[in-house]
Amino acid sequence: MTKRAWGATIQNREEKFELKRRAVLQSAARLIRTIGFDTLSLADIAADLNVAKPTIYYYFRNKEEIVRELMALAVTAFMDEADHPEDNPNEPGLTGADAFERLIRRAVRVTSDDVGSCLFVVYPNQLPPEMRLDLDAMGQPVIAWAERVLRRGLADGSIKPCDPVVVYNFMINGLRAVPILVELHRGTPETLADTMVALLAHGIRATR
After folding, report:
1. How many CA atoms lie within 13 A of 161 on its CB side?
2. Which domains occur in the chain, in start order?
């Protein structure tokens, strides 16, 4: 069967620029997960989409620029309170502990797809120093939100004394395992979120 340019994502030449750009991002995210960032080339993305390599340069100058955009997409998805309100930690009336559980479920959901999970296999030593600083700055709103939630739980007594920075870093590193465990058929994003809540959030919940 002959492959059609851009695969199934783009239906015809009249599709907007942004749709094709998103197709490049989705392809790159999937390939980063499977072959790694160091191995990935723009030629790989072009082959995956069945287009000529110069076409990719029309949307992105290099793969580092692609990673920066993937990071922006993941952070935007995480910070959008209107998206999936069932795991919005800022829902009124929640204790800090309840909000932290929601934060974990939101983090698992956002990092379960190709865009979110591919960022965990892009390591700092693979990127130019100035880009590492850019990505760190882009991730600061997520870190700040997590620390606010944890400090709220400490203040209202629903979370027992702990270091919010340590807890956040345990959570982030635990998220690295989620896509791997899904591929190993050890659970769905939903059941793995339950497990992560049980292991992490319940461990710091204060007993009443």
Report:
1. 0
2. 17-63 (1.10.10.60), 67-204 (1.10.357.10)
Which residue shows structure tokens 């199934």?
Answer: 8
> Is the pLDDT confidence value at 5 over 70?
no
Q: Taking Cα atoms as reference points, which of 204, 198, 197, 207 lies closest to residue 101?
A: 197
List the one residue out of 50, 51, 34 whose CA is nearest residue 114. 34
Tell me the whole-structure pTM to 2 decimals: 0.86
| Helices 129-156, 164-175: crossing angle, 10 deg rounding | 120
Q: Which amino acid is present at 204?
A: I
CA 60 – CA 42 distance, rounded (Å): 9
pLDDT tens-digit profile of 156-203? 999 999 999 999 999 999 998 998 898 899 999 999 999 999 998 999
Task: Of 176, 54, 196, give the one whose Cα is nearest residue 111.
Answer: 176
pLDDT of residue 17: 86
d(Cα 196, Cα 200) in Å, to the nearest integer? 6
d(CA 147, CA 143): 6
Q: Which residues pair with 205 in a beta bridge?
A: 159
Report d(CA 188, CA 130) in Å as an integer: 36
Tell me if 130 sits within 8 A of 144, measured CB to CB.
no
